[in-house]
Amino acid sequence: MGRIVVTEFISLDGVIEAPGGGEKFKYGGWTFKISRGEEGDKFKLDETRSSRALLLGRVTYEGFAAAWPSREGEFADKFDAMPKYVVSSTLTNASWSNSTVLKGDVADQVRKLKQKQDGDIVVHGSARLVQTLLENDLVDELRLMVFPVVLGTGKRLFGEMSNLKALRLVDSRVVGEGVTILRYEPAPEKAKEVAATASSRSASTR
Questions:
Q1: Are 168 and 186 in contact (CB under 8 A)?
Q2: What CATH number does the domain containing 156 carry?
Q3: What pLDDT was estimated at residue 21?
Q4: Number of domain units in the chain
Q5: Does residue 174 contact residue 180 with C-beta atoms inside 8 Å?
Q6: Which side of the chain, N or C, has fewer Cβ within a 10 Å radius?
Q7: Rounded to two decimals, what is the model's pTM?
């Protein structure tokens, strides 16, 4: 059975838009201005080596498909060879090698994918997809590489959800020029505890 691993470059104010450039974002490529150092580079390389498949939203998929096939090196070779799944209601032709378009209910499609694909199924970028996965409790691990910058505008990772989502910090480290790597796993029992406490307090104030 597969694990859904969400990995993001993110600013202090939660922006994940165009960290490597493109998408016509005014601060496109903002991560290049702050070094993540050798340890940060190794973290991303190890992550890629351990990935068994990619799960992407359409915009991120199209950006990756335009960039990676023409590149050389271990990252490019691994991305090109891996199975790639793109969630889209409009995309009809996923031309990048080993790509499959997932249509229909996203949560159902991802549950089926976890059943048939072993290992880490890694999600890069794809804010809307990630919000859907979080809403449906389908994220097994959340990895945030937090850059010490406030962008003030741009697509943010977290949106409104119907219920709170408690997380457990399993690892943290600071690399490069103050870049923080945070790894979280779901803590469903903690979420129930927090929700029950909040409900009790709300009832007592009525």
A1: yes
A2: 3.40.430.10
A3: 87
A4: 1
A5: yes
A6: C
A7: 0.91
